[in-house]
Amino acid sequence: MNIPMVDLKQQYLELKQEIDDGLQAALESTQFILGPNVQAFEKEAAEYLGVKHCLGVNSGTDALHLALIAAGVGKGDEVITTTFTFIATAEAISYVGATPVFVDVDPKTFNMDLGQVRKNINSKTKAIIPVHLFGQPVNMPELVELSQLHNIKIVEDCAQSFGADINGKQTGSFGDIGAFSFFPSKNLGCFGDGGLISTNSDEIFEHLNVLRNHGMSVRYHHTEIGYNSRLDELQAVILRVKLKHIDRFNDNRRRVDSLYKTFLAETDVVTPFEDKTGKHVYHQYTCLHPKRDQIMQALQQAKIACAIYYPIPLHRQDVYQEQFKNLSLPNAESIVEKCFSLPIYPELTEEKIQQVCEVIKTAI
After folding, report:
1. Which end of the chain is more exposed for a tag (fewer CB within 10 A), N or C?
2. CB of 277 within 8 A of CB of 248?
3. Where in the sequence is N6-(pyridoxal phosphate)lysine found (predicted)?
């Protein structure tokens, strides 16, 4: 059967001519560092996201890290975020010397529980990082209202949500700063590492420009300790091509969701819940079932890829568990025992989706 989690080759072949031509032109131009394609992609991404500024960086992790610095977060500060996410969210907080404050998640959406966010705000809270997990937007209008009440910065973790919106307003445009990842498997992915930061603040944008390029505002004049975190010119070529198709790609992911829900409707598999806060773009297709391990074993035997996103909540990870040994976040702790993710990508056919579902039905 052999069904992968994501088929990057199929998407490349579809866009091959335009990507290859763009790469060849970039190679011949020999403008490899912050070249014309990076600048063009930043403008095109800003237009798509509906923000004043976008800035290409080396990765989604760097996007979060530099965003927190630009937001003024540092030692002694607290940053509230979800425990159910990839560790890069918390790593960025730790990089700047701040303390992550983990909150539990809604058991249906898997996104951070805003009620718990409200309860954890105190005088040390400098920022909140909402994660639009698996492509489902957090209720940003409510969170923005809460942050403004307490004068707290919002850094949106949009690593999994490029193209997701709330009433037409894109994720990454609600908070003070948005951070995106272009890891190859993302909805908008390049052919290596890449990231993007979005903001409507001129001041934050100027600071980020300095931070990503060794602390330089003027060539060889360094005003602070900066970083080497620039989006690669060749990756920008690829992203410019793919950006033109992102809405179609995301619509096809929603098509895949609809088919999975149809074929699994008569089972007790809990498929992803869409809360209608905004448009879900299904970066991952994460389901719940008490016989998770049995289902995954059957899928693997049928040569169908599957994965667990994520097996351990962040407050239980080795690197953080001593610090948070007395913290109990029961929703996340329950979800990680039952969650499993199925193949999802825009080109996934109905026939293959049906095959996946038949294996699951047999397993349970």
Report:
1. N
2. no
3. 186
**Can you spell out the DSSP letters for 12-47?**
HHHHHHHHHHHHHHHHHHT--BS-HHHHHHHHHHHH
Is residue 223 located within the same domain as residue 341? no
Side-chain-side CA neighbours of 32 within 13 Å: the count stands at: 4
Q: Name 268's Cβ contacts closer than 8 Å, sequence gap at least 6.
A: 289, 364
Q: Which residues of the chain have pLDDT under 50?
A: none
Task: Please tell me whether residue 332 adopts helix, strand or coil conformation.
Answer: helix
pLDDT tens string 266-318: 999 999 999 989 999 999 999 999 999 999 999 999 999 999 999 999 999 99
What's the confidence (pLDDT) of residue 276? Answer: 87
43 among known catalytic residues: no
Domain boundary among 195, 213, 243: 243
pTM: 0.97
From the list 16, 43, 119, 186, the catalytic residue is 186
CA-CA-CA-CA torsion for 314, 278, 6, 26, nearest 10 degrees? -100
Domain total in the chain: 2
195 and 303 belong to one structural domain: no
Domain containing residue 358: 246-363
- Tens of pLDDT along 218-236? 999 999 999 999 999 999 9
Same domain, 156 and 62: yes
Predicted pLDDT at 57 = 98
Whether residue 225 is found in the same domain as residue 94: yes
Rounded (10°) CA dihedral 241, 200, 173, 102:
120
Is 293 found in the same domain as 239?
no
103 by DSSP, 3-state: which? strand
The DSSP line for 167-190 is TTEETTSSSSEEEEE--TTSSS--
Contact present, 174 and 56 (Cβ < 8 Å)? no
- For residues 234 and 277, state if they share a domain: no
